[in-house]
Amino acid sequence: MKKILISAVFILLTVLSASAQHGKSKTYIVGFYNLENLFDTYDDPVKNDEEFLPEGSNKWTDAKYQKKLHNMASVIKSMAQTNGRFHTLLGVSEIENRLVLEDLVSQPEIAAANYQIVHYDGPDARGVDVALLYRPDNFKLIGSESIPFDFDSDRIRFLMDEEGQKRFKTRDILMVHGLLDGEEFAVYVAHLPSRIGGKGSDLRSRGAEIIYEHARKMEAEYPGIKIVVMGDMNDNPTDASMVEYMHGKEKPEEVGKEDFFSPFQSMLKAGYGSLAYRGVWNIYDIILVNESLLNAPDGGVKIRPAGKKGFYGVVYRKPFMVTQSGQYKGTPFRTFSNGAFIGGYSDHFPTYIVLEK
User: Fold this and answer.
1) What is the pTM assigned to this prediction?
2) Helix (H, G, I), strand (E, B) or coil at 266
3) Which of 43, 218, 237, 276 has its CB 3.0 to 4.6 Å from that of 264, i.e. a possible disulfide?
4) Does an H or E element contain 90, and which?
5) Is 108 among the domain residues?
6) If pLDDT is split at 50, 70 and 90, which confidence band does 10 have?
7) pLDDT of amino acid 74
8) Most distant CA atoms of the chain, gap in Å
9) Do 159 and 200 form a contact (C-beta atoms < 8 A)?
């Protein structure tokens, strides 16, 4: 009788344990990080990398490069420690080539994540690209595409003349198609045209329009597909590129079938920032999700609030990532300041969202 009772208790505990495991939610971190000029020390004759060579203006030595790799890996590890897991998907920008990514993912701080890389060499004049790092235990790659920038728009009047348009070079937009926990996803990683040199908002609006139009085609081809758009947009989430051309909505209840939820709109209005320029905080490091990911039915992967204040986005900053004194106190502790190597991290804070199933 005693043996029967023990067996019955064991079976009951096993059933309860399995039930608890079945009811336990799964969490996935999806984010973006501008790595601020992650260049190797080798001369690439087809890229404008002269300043990032040992004899270049930045005196970019192997010691500085190794320090930079360690710093970037340290931030990624810190986010993993905060969240209890490494990112499932991490978009990055301002990287020179695949080699620097291979060096980054092999750093001891993050090697356990076993990050795989999706990257294409793009046409950017400075030689920097975007890429996606993904964990193959969470995300199964189906395919990818490098989408070039063009001026083929019926809505936007460009400031640049035809000759200027022919000469213009900027980063391609990366699209990665895959399965996250068995569900179909498309992930876009972008670094839209900068504001340096007086480049107009028309270029960033066109970049957003290209992403949006491609995303709509993916939704038509793969009904119910869940979409994440991320990147250094060089615009705030409240600017025309993100609101008008990406159809970004601030509040979940405003999001229709053809819209994107833009969680960093409300965060910008609340005073958060991922970078500072002349004393003004901005959030250029933006993440948006489509309606299918926002309003997924129970049991499906969906975005959830990520912070104590109910925001759906996170701007990640820790004291070691922040300038502690001087003129730029409180801003991101960057790699270079006024042309001098200061051994910091990036001029942007990373951002991320949390998905749950």
Assistant:
1) 0.92
2) helix
3) 237
4) strand 89-95
5) yes
6) very low
7) 98
8) 91
9) yes
